[in-house]
Structures are given as C-alpha cells and as structure tokens.
C-alpha cells in the first residue's frame, strides 16, 4: 500500500547531523539571525543584507495588534475553556483566514500576476484599478479599520529604500496607491499587509506563502495573550459573544 | 525505522467489505440507530434496549445550548475569519476543555473511583463530600450557571428508571446530591454533565471517554452555528472581546 | 466598538428552558432519535419518517473506515504526541478537506446547480458529463479507491426507495452513473459520498453543509481511534511518515 | 452578562499607534531583531546582549528536524487532505504535546522547582536523581532518539559562556548531567530541549511557557513542510499509517 520512499529538500538529519538547506544548524545558531533562518528555510537560500533587514521588519511588524483581532479571541477562548498552550495557539492560527490575515496572500497574488504584464508600472496600476472596479472588488492590503495611515508601511518601505531594495512589486504597489487615489477620488493608503505582500513578492516568494508570514509573525503575540489569559484571568470568564437574542421559531410540540 | 504492522480492533476493511466491530455497515444502516452505532463503535458491543434509549438521550441532551458557550464562540470566530467548515468545527472542539465540557470526565472519574469502595452508597457519598471539603474542591457535574434545576437531568434519570436501569453510579450520583445538600446546607442539583457521567459509568465506559460524549453530541450544534454565522452575518464582525483597555508600561524608547 | 446585539435562531435558552428550533430539549430527548435531532437543528424543521430513516443511514454510513483514512492519522498523531481527546478530534477534523471527505460537498454542488436546468434528467446527466470532459474534471462522488462497488450506496438508495423517497437529485445522480458509463466506456459506480450528496440535496440541505454531515458522522470513529491509540499503543510510536530521504542542497558553509 | 472591561498589558493600540510593551512598533522594526522582539513581548522588557544572542539561538535551534517529527506528519496530513495553510500549521501545532516538544516545559519545571532549594548545586543534582529513581521517572531533556550527542546543546552553552551568562539553572542542568552519569552508570547527555529549558529558566521565563518557545521556533519549519507537500506531492498520497491489520471481533450479525 505504501507509495515507496518520499523525499524532502528541507533538512538533512543523521546521528549528530542537522543541516537546514545544506547549512549546519550549529553554524546557523552562531551566525544567522532567526529572521534570516526563516528566510533560508522557506526560500532555500541565504538572504542578502537588504533581504535580512526586510525579513526581520516583516516578522516584527505583525507580531501583535492588541486584544481585538479575532485570532486573539480564538486563542484566549481555548485557554479559557481549560486547555493547553499548543491547543490555544492552534485555535488562534485556525482563525487566520481569508478575512483576517488573508490580505497578504490576496495582495501578493494580484501583484505577482500583474507585474508580469509589462514595464509601464503606472499603466498596469490603472489597469488593476479598472479590473477591480469591473469585478466590484476592493484592493486587498490597502486601507485599515483603525489606522488612517498604517505606521508600519512607511517604516518597511523606508528600510527597503535605505538598502536600495525596490523591485517591480514594491513599485507596482506604490503606483497602485496613486492610481486608487486618482480613480476613486480618496486616499486609500497601503497598509502593513499590502507592504508585506510587495516586499515578499520582490524577494521572490510565492504568494501562496502569504498567510504563512503572518502566522509566523503572530504566533509569539498569540502566545503572550495565551499566557496573560492563563495568569491574569479566571477560567470561563465572559469573553464573548456580545449580548444576543433568540429570533427562531416560538415554542412548539414534537 | 517503522515499528512493523500495527493493529486495530475497530473496523475491518477490504474491497466491498466494511465491518464495524464485526457487524456489516449495511446491516447497521438498516437495523441500528446512529446512537446505537455510537455505542457499538466505542464499546465494542451492541447496547441493550435501555442502553440504546439512554445513549440516544445522552447525545440529544448536549446538542446545543444557545450562543453563549465558549465553543460556539470558537467556531463562529473561525468562520468569521474566512475559513472552512471543518476548521470551524475544529476551532470549537479545541475549546472543549477542563472548564467547558470537562465536568462529565471529572465527575465520571470520581464516581468510578469511589463506586468500588463498598456497598453502602449513602456512606460513600458522605465520604466523597468530606474528601471534597478537605481538598477544597467543588463536585463537578452539580449546580449550573443558568439553570436552577437542569431540566435534562430529570428526563435522563426518568428514562433510566422507566427501563429499570439503575447501577451503582447512578445511585451514587443521586446519593451525592443528598449528601451535598445535607453537608453544605444548600441544594446543588445534579446537572446534565453529572447525570451523563453517572449513566455512561453504569454503561461501563471509561471516564477518560467523558469529553468524547460531549464532543459527539455538540458537533451538530457547532455546525448549526457555523452555518448560521456563514449565512446570516458579515465576515469579521465584532464577536468579541468585550471592551478592553491597555494597562501595560507607558510609552518608552528602545 | 461592539456591533450591538446579535441574533440566533437555533436554540432559545433561559433559566430552566432549552428549546431547539422551538422544541423543548426534554421532549426531544424522549421522542426523537439523535439523527432526527441532527436533522432538526440543521434544517429547522422535523424530518418526515423517510427523512429520519435516511438521515440515520447517512450518519451511520460514514462513521468509520478503518485505520487508513488520513483523518484517523491526524487524530492518532495528536494523541501520540501526548495531547488531550478534544485536541485529537480537532486534529482529525482539520484533515477533512477538499480531497478527504470533500466529495459530498462537491457532488451536492453539481447536483444542486444542474437539477434546476430542466426536467429531462437523462439529458442533464449527459450535459454534465460533457461539461466535466471539457473542463477536464472528474465527477466527485463516483468511483472508490478500495471498493469496486461501494456497499453503502445500494443500501442508502434501497432505504430511500422503500419509503418512496426519490427527488430530482437522487434521480440525477443515478442518471449520471448511466451517462458516465456510456460516455467513458467504463463503470464508475456512485460511492457513499455521491449517494449522500444526492440524499441530502433531496432533503433540501445547502451543498455548503456537505462536509458537515461527513464530520458529524465520522467524529465517533475518530474518538474510537483516539481511545484505541491512547490505551493500546505507546506514546510517540512510529505512525508515519514512510521512509524518506533528503534530496536538498549538499553540505555548505554559512 | 458581560463582566465589564478587561485589561491587557501586551500591546497598546490606537489610530496611528501600535506600542508593544510600551515601545513603538516602528522603532522595534528598525532597531530590534525578531528574536529580541519575541523576548520583549513574552517578558515585558528588553533583553541584554547575552539574552538576545541566546534567544536567537534558542529559536534557530528547533526550527526543523527533518520529516520524521510527528508534528510534521500532522501538518502534511492536513495539507494532503486538501486544506489551507493555516489549518495545516494548526494541525502540526496540535501534535506538540507532552511527548513531542514537551520536554522543555517538563525540564524547566524541575530545574525551577529544585533551583530554589539551596546553593549546593551538585548536591541538588544528586537529590533530583534520587527523586527521579524513587518515582521511576526519566529526566526530561536528557538523551536523544537519534543524536548520541545533540550538537545544538554545546553551541547553546558555548554562546552562553562567551557572554558570561551562567545562572543557577544552567549550572544545575550541567550538574545533572554529571549526577545522572555517576548514578546511572551511563552517559545521558543534555539534549536541545534540556539546554533550552536551562537557558530560558536563567532568563526568568515561567516553565509554563516552555512549549511556547518550541512552537514559535518550529512554526516556520512546519510551514516549509506544508509548502513542500503542497507543491511537490499529489493530494491524498499514502503518508501513513504503516501497514495495519484488523484484530477485532470476527463477522457477526446484528
């Protein structure tokens, strides 16, 4: 019934030997930052200095956003029900879907698909806006519920600029901001998800990994919330939902 | 590296053949209720008529409890984040821990451990209350946040009585209600979890399966909530947490 | 920040009161089978006698399929890592996706979308096969890895027939079997997922609930495997993967 | 029903403002490494230079261990069933329990509880070995299935030594290695989990966070496996279990 041996190109293991993408784990422990190691394990190669700085900033940027994101609610609810730390992290990660943390993936997909359509970035940006309007879609990674201007976006692009790192996707992302403002008549600034999408796309990561960067970044934040819930709150406190009322069928007999 | 073949005593599978605990699945589909099949797959043997009625009532009893249980919050939060039905059910099941749905297991453990200590059930019940007081523990499966008298308890015991089904654990559970009232000076009625614990213990189920009965029973309820959230509500609505404030360190510089 | 009260039409809760879709839980415990209650909570109304028999058979049919399904591997792996029962069930449910247990949903979607296209069922079936061929798709719910003829399909349709229960979707499903055989030149019998898809579609359930019926049905099976792993096997035994080899980059220096 | 406002000391959020433990997220993006940020969010304060190097090495050390760990099996099984990236990460994290990845927590608990018992570390180490023998327990964090000497342990302690970082827990951990060898008559070297347990204990982290460090570290590894499964393998391939046989009841009639 088995399909025979299968293969993996991630880590080579033997007694006394652990090599990630060919590099010895003890060398990595001494010489690379964790952010560089994340880049290595996902990409297969070492980052440049610019990519190392950007990957670090990407992972820091989304580490936490206070108590309101639904993934925090997922994690705290699992702890509150009397469960283990790993179940709580899993419960939070399960919430990170298309409408929470999904914008990196969706935005990177659009950037990567349209960036191949030519060299006139400004024109491509206008074409994307037309396509969005025709399909009645909003551009993921732009605008934010809470922040008028997402402070993390500027810093991420600033770090990129300082290192002279600006590929086609960052360029297209910024052109989109202009095109959206012009065509929609109102500012819709790039948020952290959009900026991360542009940066990882220029680094050559597949858009399908988009949610992955958000998850890596956010897990320590979820852990901090799990621990705070465990140590500061009593079990089964009222975490939600908000007051609700029943509006189904009235009383009846079987 | 493999440990060689391993064994399972649950279901026998071969081309054209599916036999659960020895019985053909097509015979079961025709002749057994789903509750009887649950009993069979977990116990290995067919239930009596009394056990079939009780297992059915046990599974019905906990199918849903409105929108307030934390597992519902878990399930709805996962849907609200833009995820699939199975992730949402998993997210709800993850919440079912020691403080939510754990009372069946905890109560059954106590009933099963003490029921072996002799034939004087009333005395054993008093000994349990003493042991609880010494260890500053509350008896799981008694009392309820919302219901003064849990309506499901009476029905479950009524069905047992009608079938002449009353083993040592149901007896001990009811003696405990008396002993608690006498020693604590206030009524602490058996809730549905305590009643289920007594019934499954008399059926001969290991207390370590306790949470399992609650999970089986509740999954359709979680599914109903997942579907209602998916079809009646907009994504990422405010499900919780309640208003919160930050009380950590003030602004400081790196 | 809250969005105000929200509403649920599933279960009405108040002190001493639990009413599912308007019916008292204690009445349901006495008068309905668990399968009927599952129908009620998902549909909002009581099933007919035919629907009750079919819902029961649907839930029994997929309760377990031996040790090979990937969801069993998910559940056993979680137990083997030293975790709780609810985490193990969640781990198994997480595996139930588009390629494992997803055929009910996919098949019901096709049946429900094409059943509205007219009254000539045989012609619609041929049109579906053409559409599948044009789009290089396989028809979900037909054929089986292990069973030449899935024994559960015949029993399910037999129960439907005995009750005179045969709507447009069962009819279309069976016409598809004929059309596939004729156009592909080989038999591709309806499997249990395809039969369940037809039956729940005739009952009026939304295809988006498809995976839900599979999950409800399978949870007791996963629980049986979790308990067997917990009680018969040692922790961290070799459950998988099969032998593998590393084929990534050779040794190199940071 | 709500319990009133609740509090969090992790991150302060307001329009245009994100401050983790009091520090601005944009400052952190510019000035701190991700490993330092993980330290900050969990501890509430900035790490020293030694602690930053150690936290980095701790996170790098456990990032992946090839295809054999059960959490990798969990993650790959979820992808193989046709599910999303976040469900796959959650499926892997669910496997990280008491027998897989639990040694950090268990080892740190022992180190933290015994380190308070006096200043004679060598004596305490012998007392721990006696206590283990009396209770027929193995010392978690020592010995390894595959590695005779875990290469990561030496590097971690080497980094600590270079920074002059050696508190009571590292000392006790190393004394334990000596005591175990002497009393058991065979070498049982500290593995990476034991070394991490000592290091995080000296940093002042609660042992209950132990699994958390392993989870943070391993999530990128799980993501790499999820992506490899998604892009290199076909859905529903045979990932496990190994060949099995049915040993339950023979054929019988309902």
Molecular structure report:
Four copies of one chain form a homotetramer. With 254 residues, chain A is mostly helical. Helix content of chain A is 56%, strand content 6%. Chain A is built from eleven helices and five strands, in the order ββββαααααααααααβ. In chain A, strands 2-3-4 form a three-stranded antiparallel β-sheet. In chain A, β2 (11-14) and β3 (17-20) form a beta hairpin. The longest helix of chain A is centred in the C-terminal third of the chain and has 23 residues, at 210-232. Chain A is globular, with a radius of gyration of 22 Å. The mean pLDDT of chain A is 95. Chains in contact: A-B, A-C, A-D, B-C, B-D, C-D. Chains A and D meet through β1, β2, β3, α1 and α2 of A and β1, β2, β3, α1 and α2 of D. β1 (6-8) of chain B pairs parallel with β5 (244-246) of chain D, so a sheet runs across the interface.
């Amino acid at each position: 019934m088995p399909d025979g041996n299968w293969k993996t190109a991630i880590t080579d293991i033997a007694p006394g030997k652990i090599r990630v993408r060919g590099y010895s784990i003890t060398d990595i422990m001494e010489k690379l930052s964790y952010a560089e190691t994340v880049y290595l394990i996902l990409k297969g190669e070492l980052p440049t200095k610019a990519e190392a700085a950007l990957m670090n900033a990407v992972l820091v940027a989304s580490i936490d956003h206070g108590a309101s994101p639904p993934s925090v609610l997922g994690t705290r609810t699992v702890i509150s029900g009397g469960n283990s730390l790993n179940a709580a992290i899993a419960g939070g990660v399960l919430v990170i879907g298309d409408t929470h943390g999904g914008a990196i993936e969706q935005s990177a997909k659009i950037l990567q698909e349209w960036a191949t359509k030519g060299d006139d970035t400004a024109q491509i940006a206008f074409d994307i806006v037309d396509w969005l309007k025709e399909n009645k879609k909003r551009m993921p990674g732009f605008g934010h519920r809470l922040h008028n201007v997402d402070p993390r976006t500027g810093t991420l692009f600033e770090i990129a600029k300082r290192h002279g790192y600006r590929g086609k996707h960052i360029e297209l992302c910024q052109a989109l901001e202009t095109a959206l403002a012009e065509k929609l008549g109102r500012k819709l600034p790039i948020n952290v998800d959009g900026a991360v999408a542009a940066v990882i796309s220029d680094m050559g990561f597949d858009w399908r990994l988009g949610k992955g960067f958000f998850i890596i970044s956010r897990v320590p934040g979820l852990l901090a919330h799990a621990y705070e819930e465990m140590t500061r709150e009593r079990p089964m406190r009222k975490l939600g939902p908000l007051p609700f009322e029943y509006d189904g069928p009235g009383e009846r007999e079987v």
